[in-house]
């Protein structure tokens, strides 16, 4: 039996750091200088926990560009409704890429784009390289990337143990559509979190019903244009059918498709070049410099063994499994220079 393809873990750093900030599972931890670090600790703990669960061969953390947004340049309303972030959240978001880089974790911050684009580009690069990918995020946007080699570990309320691994084959049970239909599903429904309204009358259930009947929204429009409005009404109701036939609906879906489309061509690293393990002492030292004290939980990232196995092993085994030194990753061409 041949060995399975190697596994790349790609983490949406913004998504998980926001979740850790609001969960404050470790309390409002601060370093010796009084700076907030609880969300930073939560993010690293998330990554370590998921690595222990999935045993990846490589890990990369992506972040949104902090200084520009191509999508906001395209549509001024994009995320414009969001309240200003608290100062201690902004500080931790700003510190996260540099801290993780110092700890040896590969980090990618694309100029003008978002962590979603990093996830999409990594999944495409991994597939081309014969790797599998698991995308770790709390956002549903990544469902559009599901395919035979890409899965999504969605972090939900309830903490890390409540995370659900979603595959292309299981997506219909999650939202009622096939993976190849998800982009149309999201464009019809809209995304309130990004201030992208959908077609009036089309929530999740109505959008799924339309796609179950026609496959794509373009096929539904072809039916409306071809005098088969009764078929559309039978699938979603008369009122929703009328709304879908309006010119404004086509404009909304076109805009949402454009803004929701994720880049797959960013210059992310080849997964072979960022293979684990990371250097344990380097991670401990960088994290401790910000008052984050982690040790045994880092085993899956640093080439160790589970803590219970270490505790039962004799001293010579514990020394033998000490992880080797790994090379320091360098910023990648096209990556925002933060380091």
TrEMBL record:
This protein's record includes keyword Plastid: no
InterPro entries: 5-3_exonucl_a-hlix_arch_N (IPR020046), 5-3_exonuclease (IPR002421), 5-3_exonuclease_C_sf (IPR036279), DNA_polI_H3TH (IPR020045), FEN (IPR038969), HhH2 (IPR008918), PIN-like_dom_sf (IPR029060)
Alphabetical UniProt keywords: DNA-binding, Exonuclease, Hydrolase, Nuclease
UniProt-listed Gene3D superfamilies: 5' to 3' exonuclease, C-terminal subdomain, 5'-nuclease
Pfam families hit by this protein: 5_3_exonuc (PF01367), 5_3_exonuc_N (PF02739)
Keyword hit for Ion transport: no
Sequence ranges assigned to domain 5'-3' exonuclease in this UniProt record: 3-277
Task of the protein: 5'-3' exonuclease acting preferentially on double-stranded DNA.
Protein name as it appears in the record: 5'-3' exonuclease
